Amino acid sequence: MTRPLPPTPRPSCDPHARVTGPVERGYAAYARRAAAWTARYQERGGRVFCGAGCFACCNMPIRVSLAEALLTAGALDAAQAAAVAAHARRVLHNARTAPDDETYVERHRREVGFCPLLDPRSGGCTQYAVRPTRCRDTFSALPARYCEAGAWEQMTRRERESYRREVARTPGTDGELHFIAPLEHLSEPVWAAAARAMRAEWGLEVWGDFWVLTTLARDPQFMAGVGRGDARGAWRAAKAAGLAHPAILELD
Ligand code: SF4
Ligand code: SF4
What we know:
It is a single chain. The chain is 52% helix and 6% strand. It is mainly alpha-helical and 252 residues long. It has one domain (17-251). A 3-stranded antiparallel β-sheet has the order 1-4-5. Strands 2-3 form a two-stranded antiparallel sheet. Helix 1 (17-43) crosses helix 2 (66-73) and helix 3 crosses helix 10. The radius of gyration is 18 Å and the shape is globular. The protein binds iron/sulfur cluster (SF4) (2 copies). One iron/sulfur cluster (SF4) binds at residues 1-2, 58, 115, 117-118, 125, 127, 131, 135. InterPro entries: Puta_zinc/iron-chelating_dom.
């Protein structure tokens, strides 16, 4: 996903370090592995089309662990936290009203819209250092126009056939979509580290929408419930905050 702006200073003391630490180490390991994989891919003639100011993917829905959301939430100032919370409410409305998964994704991209952490002037991510896993492992083997909302829907039948042929002959794709599959798979250890750390610290795992969990990560009632391993209490707190819906919040 979109490239960096200058790094944002982060708080030095993280009260959730036993949960966020493994994720941060996972991010660092992912960056090393992805750089090595990409270098080999490019030596063999592969192309990565992601670059500075490219952000067409920043209106996709993003699923995260609460461990990742805590890292992002800890870096936000009040204005960004308010913008993320407003975005979370639009996500919730979409979850309540979309009749199926396909419509949910389409409406997210077109109506919920771009991530409020995106700087629309530069196309950079204002929280690049603490962006979630999905923003780190999404890379395109074809030009960004194929990442835009509605790209597939707007293609003619001939263009779709051409896209399929192009994807099928492009190394690094899964043969169906133009994203670079091995760079997504390389992030699986980050998901696993987040799951283990949450289970060990809280006795439960919390997953869901990025903006919803980033908002709830700053909610003391919600975090108190999670900290007690009390899934029902955390759910009640999320409900009181107006952000509880099974499609965007999982407590297990
Ligand atoms: S090429 Fe696609 S995946 Fe890569 S940064 Fe641009 S919009 Fe995102
Ligand atoms: S956090 Fe938001 S702005 Fe940053 S890369 Fe992810 S979707 Fe884009």
